[in-house]
Amino acid sequence: MEDGGKSDVPKLPIPGKRNILITSALPYVNNVPHLGNIIGCVLSADVYARYCRLRGYNAIYICGTDEYGTATETKALEENCTPKEICDKYHAIHKEVYDWFDISFDKFGRTSTPEQTEVCQAIFKKLWENKWLSENTMQQLYCDTCKKFLADRLVEGSCPFDACNYGSARGDQCENCGKLLNPTELKDPKCKVCQNTPRIRDTDHLFIELPLLKDKLEEYIKETSVAGSWSQNAIQTTNAWLRDGLRQRCITRDLKWGVPVPHEKYKEKVFYVWFDAPIGYVSITSCYTSEWEKWWKNPENVELYQFMGKDNVPFHTVMFPSTQLGTGENWTLMKTISVTEYLNYEDGKFSKSKGVGVFGNDVKDTNIPVEVWRYYLLTNRPEVSDTSFSWKDLQAKLNGELLSNLGNFVNRVLSFIAKPESSGYGSVIPDAPGAESHPLTISLAEKVEKLVAEYVEAMEKVKLKQGLKTAMLISNEGNFYLQANQFWKLYKDDKPSCAIVIRTAAGLVHLIAQLLEPFIPSFSCEVFKQLNLPPHFSLSDERGEVLLASRPWEILPPSHMIGTPQPLFKELVDEEVQQYREKFAGSQADRRARDEAANLRDQLNKTKLSDAKKQKASSSKSGGKPKPQPAADREVTMARLDIRVGKILKAERHPRADALYVEEIDVGGGEIRTVVSGLVNYIPLEEMQNRMVCVLCNLKPAKMRDIVSQAMVLAASSSDGSKVELVEPPESAIIGERVTFPGFEGEPDDLLNPKKKIFETLAVDLHTNENLVACYKDVPFTTSAGVCKVSSISNGPVR
């Protein structure tokens, strides 16, 4: 089976049917998607794709990971691996997250494929032949330290627009004001790798001439934005681009990881990711079917619907259509674009780079079912303005809407039918003659018919939140209908009327499950299971299923035997909400540090208890308390080292030694130590400033080229000695707190005796492990905030 449980046989457009090609913005592969990413593109598109299938349209849903570009190269540098290894790792993570969320792709692919290269280069050649490309020498930032041109995402600085002036704008786009930028426009630019200031150098690149394509583009936008009912935020963003004036845009980059440019002069360059990524929709479709042109070059028979967050709009309404129009080929251009604003987290913003918020891989650990997550995100979909995720609001939606309204209605109806015949219907749907003349039933049917029409209208216009709200109103009406009829009394006093009410209500249960399948498919599957029906969902005009909504008593046949009713939702209590708020507070790094610290505290407590028992046994044997040992006689363990959390306040070059730094380090309690370190050849001076470090404080002071070093900063080195990295405590560790080693308790020596070589004896077992944690043997360097780590050196000695 292909992704989402689809047939292995690829679907192709069918003449005479509505053929709908659905895409969602390709999620970038360098990180785990958070809830804002999920609602912004893949989940919204999934709802619409499921709706199209429900209505009997011939629809396919295409997506995949966007894998080329600077961010992948940067992530590979961080994780000390190749870009391909990064892509393989995170593609699998994305796929696992989307599978858990029941996202029903027809194809979930990736852009680092031969098909991407083929399609991308073919489009480029057409643009070149049609003379929509130009060559230009441009000024680009070059880092002398890293010895390379810096791609835009490897540069950060202040936004050049005075109204914004955001201090952490990227070289390609300011996240604060949304303006697209060139790296040379940034104020006070810095290389993200080494933090040095780059210089401007000339380099030749290729450009697409958007100003020359303006007339074709404006004609397309004017016609399609109306016909395709573009969302208002998409129209506003696009008009702002046109109003500000189109500029030529560079389509090549000085990178290695990307689609190579098929031109002799530019063969060492790759295509810019903005140019290459939207073409991924096409190449992923070509991986789905070799007859991909029937979808992508068939505008007479195919409608293209695209879903994304607002930051992606210009690439889909200006850049990609310009590329398609420039080829002169008969491309299927986007008809409808559905754009979301931002979903914020509690009191701040979701952030992949900072690890803030609830991420796709977190939700599985909450024991909150997928249908609850999907429902909450979709009711909170930021269609017009930014919305906010909060745990209290999720609790309110689950308990007040899913449990009390929807779950309660379904369970009341099915549980009553399942009761023995003495008090119910023995699990059999009753016949209901006379329903057409039952006043409350006719009133309900009129309301339901109207609501179903409103649901269809909203969904056709891709107003997903309105569609969900309308479906839930039918559940409301069902509950009111049960209460107004007091079916439990009717069963005793008027069995024919009771049968009408119950058969009608059972039909509503079936209808609601159909309408909600695009939103919460696992719920609908469970309802159909309890109805003893196969999970086949259909609301087709051709089969009269929409019309049947006006006669809900006819939806389920009499004598049909249902399955076993079960509660569909579980209450979320205040204690659980508080636990989740605490668990997901701060960044992902903070959470890992808290978890590690908690685990180590447990381990430490067990060790202390074990040591106390041993000491008590030893004391009882000797008939009294153990005598304290003089320092010279103590066992050589890590307890004798006074390693503290310190912060470098200032670092500078040693005035008389080229390879040495002199640091002023705060080691707590108002004590500042002068430390001399041989790190000049390994760590740039800029990176030594304001660093959290692990400091060995009870070494005998030593004079190093006329400056007395009063401690030692601990660092790890690679096996070949070419690389050195500082051992760093968590950012939230307390300056001056002692770094401990669970299982090795006791006060440190006031001053280590250099003749006893205590540190030298212990140092042979100091190293980093495969998880980059600094350890003594297998015991980690531990603080109250978590363990101490290095950036990238695994299995290296620590000194």
Automatic annotation (TrEMBL):
CDD domains: Anticodon_Ia_Met, MetRS_core, tRNA_bind_EMAP-II_like. Residues 637-740 form the TRNA-binding domain. Its main location: cytoplasm. Residues 601-614 have a biased composition (Basic and acidic residues). Belongs to the class-I aminoacyl-tRNA synthetase family. The keyword Glycoprotein does not apply. It catalyses: tRNA(Met) + L-methionine + ATP = L-methionyl-tRNA(Met) + AMP + diphosphate. Keywords: Aminoacyl-tRNA synthetase, ATP-binding, Cytoplasm, Ligase, Nucleotide-binding, Protein biosynthesis, RNA-binding, tRNA-binding. GO terms for molecular function: ligase activity. This is methionine--tRNA ligase. Its EC number is 6.1.1.10. Residues 601-635 are annotated as: Disordered. The gene is LOC104732330. It is found in: Cytoplasm. Residues 617-626 have a biased composition (Low complexity).
